[in-house]
Design brief:
Elements (H helix, E strand, L loop, with lengths): L2 H18 L25 E5 L8 H11 L6 E5 L1 H11 L3 H9 L9 E2 L5 E2 L2 H10 L12 E7 L5 E4 L4 H8 L9 E3 L2 E5 L8 H6 L4 E5 L13 H21 L4 E3 L14 H14 L1 H17 L1
Parallel strand pairs: 1-2, 1-9, 2-5, 9-10
Antiparallel strand pairs: 3-4, 5-6, 5-8, 7-8
Helix pairs in contact: 2-4, 2-9, 3-6, 5-6
Length: about 300
């Protein structure tokens, strides 16, 4: 084969190879854009507002116990009257089981001191000292969680919220049922039970920065039955006065838990186990609603 024939054969072979080769797929010069990650939902600042109700207040412990057991831990606490006692201990660092243990060891004589000079009214100094001892003499601003004790200024009827200073004194003022406890003198003004103006302190929890408030209402409702003792009469009178006002404030909470403690009297400290159990049962029953409303609130905050 001469030189010209060899060159022609080589060109023909190349053309045939080009015709039988599968074209390679065209590659994109840019990578596909990954789908954006979902925006994390904001953390809720959960507050718990603990209402007044004398011995019924042990129910608050059961509510807190059940919430904590299910991963719902309030970060701010407000309390009125009996709720201020439980709230102060909880905000100072007690967990639910420590609160329950403390309630079992409570001797009523530790918190009741009658003064004959004031017509047999309870002074409240023992309650003040008892609370301060348990919180290790810490002022409220040093508590583990922000705390508010709600009281009523006696001269004006103005709602007053204490968030700093002597914890025991603030709790004593918040718990000073008119006609049963002596009014408490603080900075030249006298204060009585916060239940007169704020039976369940939802607004105080908001003031502390809560964007989701769980209210615990242990108040009794007027049933037409006359109380059998002086404390019961006074307690019912205060309840009647604050009932409508309390309904308005409760409407501003996301969730209201109502333990069934209506049959427990204001001085029935021997019913503490039943009150705690009723608190647990009431909180457990509303857990699905609480979770749903918390999720809804997170979505609202995320959209803002």
């Amino acid at each position: 084969m001469n030189r010209r024939s060899a060159l022609a054969a080589l060109l023909l072979t190349g053309l045939l190879a080009a015709c039988t080769t599968t074209p390679s797929e065209t590659q994109s010069a840019t990578q596909p854009t990954p789908a954006p990650l979902p925006k994390p939902l904001p953390q809720l600042k959960v507050g718990i507002a603990l209402g007044g109700g004398a011995a019924k207040g042990f129910a608050h412990i059961g509510v807190i116990k059940m919430l904590e057991a299910n991963g719902i831990k309030p970060v701010v606490v407000s309390g009125t009257s009996a709720g201020s006692v439980v709230g102060a201990l909880y905000a100072s660092g007690f967990d639910a089981f420590q609160l329950q243990e403390q309630s079992f060891s409570l001797d009523e004589s530790k918190i009741r001191d009658v003064s004959l000079l004031s017509g047999g009214l309870v002074k409240g100094q023992k309650l003040q000292d008892y609370v301060n001892e348990l919180v290790k003499q810490k002022p409220m601003e040093k508590f583990a969680k922000p705390f508010a004790a709600v009281t009523t200024e006696l001269e004006t009827g103005r709602r007053t919220v204490f968030v700093k200073g002597n914890a025991g004194m603030a709790v004593r003022a918040s718990s000073s049922i008119p006609g049963v406890f002596e009014p408490v003198l603080i900075n030249g003004k006298r204060y009585v039970d916060g239940g007169v103006v704020s039976p369940v302190p939802v607004d105080a929890a908001r003031q502390l920065g809560a964007d989701f408030v769980i209210a615990v209402d242990i108040s009794s409702k007027a049933t037409g039955t006359a109380p059998s003792n002086m404390l019961g009469i006074v307690n019912q009178a205060i309840m009647i006065m604050g009932q409508k006002l309390g309904e308005q404030e409760l409407a501003r909470a996301e969730v209201v838990i109502r333990p069934r403690v209506g049959k427990i009297g204001p001085t029935d400290f021997d019913q503490r186990n039943i009150a705690i159990l009723e608190g647990e049962k009431a909180a457990l029953a509303l857990l699905p609603l609480i979770r749903q409303k918390m999720a809804d609130k997170q979505k609202v905050l995320a959209a803002q």
